[in-house]
Design a protein that fits this description.
The complex is a heterodimer of chains A (218) and B (220).
Chain A: H1 2-17, H2 19-39, H3 44-67, H4 69-77, H5 79-85, H6 90-119, H7 127-152, H8 158-185, H9 191-216
Helix pairs in contact in A: 1-2, 1-6, 2-3, 2-6, 3-6, 3-7, 3-8, 4-7, 6-7, 6-9, 7-8, 7-9, 8-9
Chain B: E1 10-21, E2 24-35, E3 39-43, H1 50-58, E4 65-70, E5 77-80, H2 92-101, H3 108-117, H4 133-146, E6 151-155, H5 163-178, E7 182-186, E8 196-200, H6 207-214
Parallel strand pairs in B: 3-7, 3-8, 5-6, 6-7
Antiparallel strand pairs in B: 1-2, 1-4
Classes of the chains: A mainly alpha (218), B alpha/beta (220).
Chain lengths: 218, 220
């Protein structure tokens, strides 16, 4: 636990020194969602129908954008070696890194999502569902992405490879995440969607730190 | 033997170790026993496998052939390689905080003392990005004074360190080995300590490689 706290503390300190890293995914998310009505149509009826999908796809792309650097910076300056040499299992390291990644790239998206929902005329009844689905979904995205990030660490130009590797894994999360919000907008029950998103999160939480830890040692 | 080590306790047993990279055998049949108080100076030409050997000992490079065995599970190693593992945006003290956190906790006083020992007094709160190459290496080496490890694996620890610094470093190596620790290090500089033992990677290179090495002089 102390080991994980040491990593979390260090990484948060690094983010505080370089706030651009924190702002980037958020700016990207807001820009995509803000430009979408300009490109399609500012009509309220159309936007409210597509809002759920747009928000979820933008959130996924924003997560993807920051994933490549998850282990890469540590690999390049040699601190990843030192972290792996520490007498702790490597999944602790992955879990700590993913937690910080979510805190920096996932949590701000959730917090700003009500505002975005208003911009896209999403019915206000669906906003709690949107936030809850993002709360369950974005950590899943970060966790799944960690496997890909660990695999392409040390590969030059691994960004494209990373996208190809983990995009298929993201598909179910997006489908259920976006459909839950769409269902809520129509006033239908969302328990089933939430249960599935929750199950995916628990599954990812159990499997991915271990898998990414093993991949880092390759 | 001029420097009797405290107990001659064996720490690390390396048997029949080999390394192959890009289908080229760098070394093979490497057998040494590292005992408490040993100071091994690993020599060899560029590309002879010095760094890979150290990484195999640290557990960062897979051991396909042979065995690296720690004789006591409590034995702690510190590996400091070419990449120092420092975060440029953090200060010297902050870097030591997380590096020391890998082995346990440290107090600020301990960290400042460690930095003073490597000659960085007054640089505790300096951002590492603003330090010189030699000072950065000193920050990384400060960890040796902060964490209690039995075996130091040092890859070119003298690189970009000044003359006085190298003399100081040799003094730390002396102290550590006399206190029952062991050091395995690579360097192209000579180590002037009496207890130094030389491990020449060239002795374990494959015959074909030695043949190539001789091509520069006279082919035998």
């Amino acid at each position: 636990m102390g080991f994980m706290l040491a990593i979390i503390r260090r990484d948060l300190l690094l983010v505080a020194r370089q706030p651009a890293e924190m702002i980037n995914p958020l700016v990207f998310f807001v820009l995509v969602v803000a430009l979408f009505p300009l490109g399609v149509s500012p009509e309220a009826s159309l936007l409210s129908q597509t809002a759920a999908g747009v928000i979820w796809v933008a959130a996924m792309l924003a997560t993807l954008l920051s994933l490549e650097l998850l282990f890469k910076l540590d690999h390049d300056d040699g601190s990843l070696e030192q972290l792996l040499l520490a007498p702790y299992p490597s999944w602790c390291l992955v879990l700590a890194k993913v937690f910080v990644h979510w805190l920096v790239s996932g949590l701000p998206l959730i917090l700003i999502s009500p505002l975005i929902a208003m911009m896209l005329f999403l019915p206000s009844d669906a906003v709690p569902t949107l936030m809850l689905s993002l709360l369950l979904g974005t950590p899943t995205l970060s966790l799944l992405g960690a496997i890909g990030a660990a695999l392409v660490t040390g590969v030059r130009g691994g960004g494209m490879l990373l996208t190809l590797l983990i995009l298929p894994l993201y598909v179910p999360v997006i489908i259920f995440g976006a459909s839950s919000v769409a269902a809520a907008a129509l006033g239908m029950p969302v328990d089933g969607y939430m249960a599935l998103l929750g199950a995916m999160f628990v599954f990812a939480l159990m499997i991915t730190p271990w898998a990414a830890g093993a991949a880092l040692k390759l | 033997m001029p420097f009797p080590s405290p107990a001659m306790k064996p720490l690390l047993c390396i048997s029949d170790l080999a390394c192959e990279r890009d289908s080229r055998t760098l070394y093979q049949g490497l057998n040494i026993n590292v005992e408490a108080g040993d100071l091994w100076h690993i020599k060899g030409r560029n590309g002879a496998g010095k760094t890979t050997f150290l990484r195999q000992l640290a557990g960062l490079h897979a051991v396909d052939e042979g065995e690296v065995q720690l004789l006591n599970n409590d034995t702690r190693m510190i590996y400091i390689g070419h990449k120092l593992g420092l975060k440029e945006q953090l200060t010297a003290d902050e870097n030591l905080t997380w590096l020391a956190g890998l082995d346990g906790l440290s107090t600020q006083k301990q960290r400042f003392m460690a930095l003073e020992q490597v000659g960085l007094r007054g640089y505790e709160e300096s951002v590492v990005a603003q330090l010189s190459a030699g000072q950065k290496r000193r920050v990384a080496l400060a960890r040796l004074h902060l964490c209690k490890a039995d075996i130091w694996l040092l890859d070119e620890p003298f690189t970009s360190i000044d003359q006085q610094g190298i003399a100081d470093e040799q003094e730390w190596l002396n102290k550590h080995t006399l206190a029952g620790g062991a050091v395995l290090m690579t360097s192209h500089q000579d180590i002037t300590l009496a207890q130094v033992q030389v491990l020449d990677m060239g002795d374990y290179a494959r015959q074909t490689c030695q043949y190539l090495a001789n091509e520069n002089g006279n082919i035998t």
